[in-house]
Design brief:
The complex is a heterodimer of chains A (111) and B (444). Chain A is of the alpha+beta class. Chain A is built from two helices and six strands, in the order βαββββαβ. The two termini of chain A are 14 Å apart. Helix content of chain B is 65%, strand content 0%. Classes of the chains: A alpha+beta (111), B mainly alpha (444).
Chain lengths: 111, 444
């Protein structure tokens, strides 16, 4: 088994009613549960606050977030899968995709 | 629906603490209304928009955190704590710049009383009252009934403008306007409606009963084709009616009768549309699928409501609904009793729709010819001109009299009045019945 990082980006939630927000949340809970039950969820990871700082280059120039909504990293999880192909396949169930978001699947370098 | 596991549309058995038996279903919607009401009391009604922002923020945080970490043990408390922390930030940041609730203003100024005041104001007991006070505030007499209902759905039930527009088959722009106007009127008053020692209490309570009745009816008889949306409207009306009956000041007999009538109607809700998605009238509904739990609750509430002097329209309507749900079949229904209850109801609240239902009961009791006469004798039947069920009733009774051509004409009149595909399909099916062979059916 290898490890992979899922990086969640974007996922439009503008104009959602409370009921719709709950539905989105429940889809995630179900999806994560499914991964956990099959032994693929190494670490649920965390959501990230929207704001933050960007420290850049030799000058250590500090700028504020936020970034364009579609590029904004909203959270991450740690996944266990056979190979990149399987990890990619598993990510297709992620509810963020239904709301125009993306999942970046990155193999963690083995030592 | 059909034979799927029973999912009672109302989760709060009478008399128990509602907070304990609520499910997680519709949690965000329910808590949204509660939190807005509670925060509005702290911020003042003029800061309603700020309260809405704070609640939106708390719901967004819940969405983000729970989707990664799973739902907490007590999600309601988690949400309230999150909203409270955010409210504390806002109050600290803006207490110099903005006026908050006048009755709390001094308490919020001093650091000694700041935190305890907020803890108290956003504690579970206060919230129950705040939800009720918000309900009373929404039925401001300066607003029309439609605006009151829209405002209740938006603020207390967390329905978005689009969701309300869908449910009422109205444009989002029209609903937006109603809600904006409602909020403007609300914000004009500095504080939420005071429940105790208020001369307007009875009048406002009647207005809430009426608004919840309209909300329930929109779900039950309304024009929206989607069964799911209709069930939700009924459920919300029942939830808020249950909040009323749980409060000693608001739990008057008419309130209990209102909730009784909702339970007794809701018991039949899942059978109003059959497996193929078409409309199923009372006589054709599968009575074994009626929800016995709701019938029992309705009956118990109706018994509790049978005190005091006042016989409200809700008492009478609940009694009619009770006659229906306890009858073994449409044929073995006490139609005489139902006709006389409709007479009583018409005396309390004259309405052509009630007269229409009475005429259908007359037809069941005395035959289709007498029913037709009653239909044609409805005083203000002009007001039924766009209501498809008037020509449908005429058509059904003509068909029962064996006059297929006349029946067909009535159904043809009804067809363009259909408000959604379900009604349209139903009327087309009746027209086909006229063309093929008469298959008499009972009304409902």
């Amino acid at each position: 088994m290898s490890e992979f990082l899922y990086v969640y980006r974007g996922g439009n939630r503008a104009g959602l009613s409370p009921e719709q927000m709950q539905q989105v949340m429940q889809k995630w809970v179900t999806w994560m549960q499914g991964l956990a039950e099959k032994g693929h969820l190494k670490d649920r990871g965390h959501p990230l606050e929207a704001g933050g700082k960007l420290v850049n280059g030799r000058s250590k120039n500090v700028t504020d977030g936020p970034y364009a909504e579609k590029d904004l990293v909203g959270g991450y999880s740690l996944i266990e899968a056979r190979d990149l192909a399987q990890a990619t396949e598993l990510s297709k169930g992620c509810p963020i995709l239904e709301r125009d978001g993306s999942v970046e699947v990155r193999p963690i370098m083995q030592m | 629906m059909g034979s799927a596991p029973r999912n009672p549309i109302w989760h709060e058995p009478a008399g128990n603490d509602p907070a304990r038996c609520e499910s997680l279903e519709h949690l965000f919607r329910r808590e949204s209304g509660r939190m807005i009401a509670a925060l509005t009391r702290v911020f003042g009604v003029h800061n309603l928009a700020l309260a809405e922002d704070v609640v939106q923020d708390a719901l967004c945080r819940a969405l983000e955190v729970w989707k990664h970490r799973g739902m907490p043990e007590n999600p309601s408390a988690w949400l309230m704590t999150t909203a409270k922390n955010r409210a504390i930030d806002v109050l600290r940041r803006e207490r110099r710049a903005r006026a908050f609730a006048p009755e709390l203003e001094r308490l919020l100024e001093s650091e000694w009383t700041f935190t305890p005041t907020i803890e108290e104001a956003l504690g579970p007991h206060a919230i129950r009252d705040d939800e009720l006070r918000m309900m009373f505030s929404c039925v401001n007499p300066r607003l029309g009934e439609e605006s009151q209902v829209a405002l209740i759905l938006h603020i207390l039930c967390g329905f978005s403008v689009k969701e309300i527009a869908n449910a009422f088959l109205t444009s989002a722009a029209a609903i937006e306007k109603r809600i904006a106007r409602g909020k403007q009127v609300l914000s004009g008053s500095k504080r939420l409606f005071e429940l105790h020692e208020n001369a307007d209490f009875q009048a406002r309570l009647s207005a809430i009963q009426r608004a919840l009745y309209l909300l329930f009816n929109e779900g039950y008889h309304g024009s929206c084709a989607e069964q799911l949306i209709r069930v939700e409207l009924c459920r919300e009306a029942m939830r808020l009616a249950a909040v009323l009956t749980a409060h000693p000041l608001a739990a008057i007999p008419a309130t209990r009768a209102l909730l009784a009538l909702m339970c007794l109607h809701a018991a039949r809700l899942s059978t109003r549309v059959n497996e193929s998605g078409s409309l199923s009238l009372l006589g054709d509904q599968d009575r074994s699928q009626w929800n016995t739990e709701l019938i029992a609750q309705g009956q118990q509430l109706l018994e509790l409501a049978a005190t005091g002097e006042e016989l409200s329209e809700y008492h009478v309507e609940a009694a009619i609904a009770w006659c229906h749900v306890t009858a073994p079949s449409a044929r073995d229904t006490d139609w005489y009793q139902i006709v006389s209850l409709y007479d009583t109801l018409l005396a309390i609240r004259p309405s052509p729709v009630i007269a229409l239902n009475r005429a259908i009961a007359v037809a069941q009791h005395e035959g289709p010819a007498r029913g037709l006469a009653a239909l044609r004798g409805i005083d203000d039947r002009g007001r039924l001109a766009t209501y498809p069920f008037y020509p449908i009733a005429l058509g059904e009774l003509e068909l029962q009299c064996g006059r297929r051509a006349a029946a067909r004409e009535h159904f043809a009149v009804a067809l363009p009045l259909a408000r959604n595909p379900v009604e349209q399909e139903f009327i087309e099916q009746r027209i086909r019945a006229c063309d093929n062979q008469a298959e008499p059916r009972s009304g409902g």
